[in-house]
From TrEMBL:
Highest taxon above the source species: Bacteria
Residues covered by the UvrD-like helicase C-terminal domain: 101-216
Keyword ATP-binding: yes
Name of protein: UvrD-like helicase C-terminal domain-containing protein
InterPro entries: DNA_helicase_UvrD-like_C, DNA_helicase_UvrD/REP, P-loop_NTPase
A Pfam short name: UvrD_C
Keywords tagged on the record: ATP-binding, Helicase, Hydrolase, Nucleotide-binding
Molecular-function GO terms, alphabetical: 3'-5' DNA helicase activity; ATP binding; DNA binding; hydrolase activity
Coiled coil: none
SUPFAM superfamilies recorded: P-loop containing nucleoside triphosphate hydrolases
Gene3D superfamilies: P-loop containing nucleotide triphosphate hydrolases
Tagged with keyword ATP-binding: yes
GO biological process terms on file: double-strand break repair via homologous recombination; replication fork processing
């Protein structure tokens, strides 16, 4: 099953595949057949929105956009994304705690090794992505300052909108990409309720796009599972794997 095949699935049917995976039996009617399902959004779009599972995922995309000189709009405002935490982790890694103006943080993490150990022990996605960003960028304070400069208050002025999927609820954009920080549903070692929460967030993500939607690996894995399951049921019939 090729990525091109997955990309040919109508967005309304992506909705229904997620609902089917959740155990819903009544399909949702999609907007129509003109929506594009892609592996990645085209580079020449005037604007795109990138939806994330984690705050550090949002910051990752913003840092990449900053490198390209793009104007960035943060849903809820840049202040909502706690960029200071990444700066704190950077200075902790350099043993320069005098730069950290957060007593609670310095009390909790006396040494950088304490932060690393907690990230490993808890598997916290935000902490692990913070550590990943430290490996990618050795000039975090300067990068964060650049983000402040390239942030705009009006979305119409931005070439990219960044947000968590939580903050995206109720909003829509022409062009939407799902970031790769959503967990693989099939690898989650969580309760059914927690898995359902993750599925709900993916559903919110795929329903934010009006014209174009770029899938991530989490949605693709669910689509493959649903397609395989439907094929097994339709082996003896001429019914299409996906139908409206």
């Amino acid at each position: 099953m090729t990525p091109c095949f997955l990309a040919s699935v109508l967005r309304g049917q992506v909705h229904n595949a997620l609902l089917e995976f959740k155990g819903e039996t009544r399909p949702v009617i999609g907007r129509g057949g003109d929506d594009d399902i892609l592996q990645a959004l085209p580079d020449d779009l005037p604007h795109q929105a990138v939806l994330h599972r984690t705050v550090m995922g949002v910051i990752t995309t913003a840092l990449q956009a900053s490198e390209q000189g793009q104007k960035i709009y943060w849903v809820g405002g840049i202040e909502a994304y706690n960029l200071r935490h990444l700066g704190h982790v950077f200075w902790l890694s350099k043993n320069r705690k005098e730069h950290i103006q957060d007593e609670a943080f310095t009390r909790q993490y006396e040494h950088f090794a304490d932060y690393v150990e907690q990230a490993k022990a808890t598997g916290d996605a935000e902490m692990r992505r913070s550590l990943m960003l430290l490996k990618v960028y050795n000039d975090i304070p300067q990068r964060l300052a650049a983000l402040e400069q390239q942030t705009v208050k009006e979305e119409a002025e931005a070439s990219i909108t960044v947000t968590t999927v939580h903050r995206a609820k109720g909003l829509e954009w022409d062009n939407v990409a799902l970031f790769y920080d959503f967990p693989d549903i099939f690898e989650l070692e969580e309760t059914p309720d927690q898995q359902d929460d993750e599925l709900n967030l993916l559903y919110v993500g795929v329903t934010r796009a009006i014209k174009r939607l770029a899938l991530n690996a989490s949605v693709e894995s669910i689509l493959r599972h649903i397609i395989d399951r439907r094929r097994q049921k339709n082996d003896q019939s001429d019914s299409p794997v996906f139908s409206n």
